[in-house]
């Protein structure tokens, strides 16, 4: 069954099918993300914990059979050379440290582009989306990255769509996830689509995971300003932090979390006691407050960073928010240290 079809088939057809996944591991890849993804497939492929490749199969593919060293030092050997990418239902690229120059070689880039040409879906796990983006393979697709890597992705690929409020994205031709335990969530979704819900349940139970999270689940993190018990509010706050220069219109912010502006305003008043616009301003001021305490950047530079046209306007807003001027706050922070 071709991955791009994404259609539901009956249980008999599912039992006859095998989900085939090829893994491309980058230099200094994240071992936990790879292990969770492949182990979800392994446990779903057979009953209980027998590890038979009955309903799924996987290979670690590479341009050589040389050992690939993960970011923690553990090495993994490729099990297959580059073959016809259409043998696989998905090609999963597992990224790792962003400080590594050329995380994959040119043969790997060529292979990924061949997979794209043959309509084989590509998935970037952890920072694997950076590798796909650098290869020109994330155009017209939205990348999902960890909130830790969001700023760097925007700096490297300003023309590409990216978000870090969700755990993972998966459409017909591309997938991406934040890494960590979300790799198991994404793998579980593939298992459910191409094998069965029972296989998914078996895998998660053995992994001691209560239930798989969905693409709409919010990344677990504490926002810069505060934390709230409504996923839509949390997602909106995270997005505000990403666009701390104030460039995200409230209407678009509402649409990103599946609400109208009026609905978003009502939920914000209920959950935070303030409007989205006021919350957005507070997020910007909290970021400025943090920069003031941690750097010697000029006030005008900080003002521009958080979306103000001049230092005087920024100073007035900061004082109205915190009861002291930016200079007074910086001086107090220096005394405290």
UniProtKB/TrEMBL annotation:
It comes from Rhizobium sophoriradicis. One of its GO terms (molecular function) is sequence-specific DNA binding. CDD domains: GATase1_AraC_ArgR_like (cd03136). It holds the Pfam family DJ-1_PfpI. The keyword Lyase does not apply. InterPro entries: Class_I_gatase-like, DJ-1/PfpI, Homeodomain-like_sf, HTH_AraC, HTH_AraC-typ_CS, INH-QAR, Tscrpt_reg_AraC-type_HTH. Keywords: DNA-binding, Transcription, Transcription regulation. The keyword Ligase does not apply. SMART domains: HTH_ARAC (SM00342). Residues 234-332 form the HTH araC/xylS-type domain. This is GlxA family transcriptional regulator.
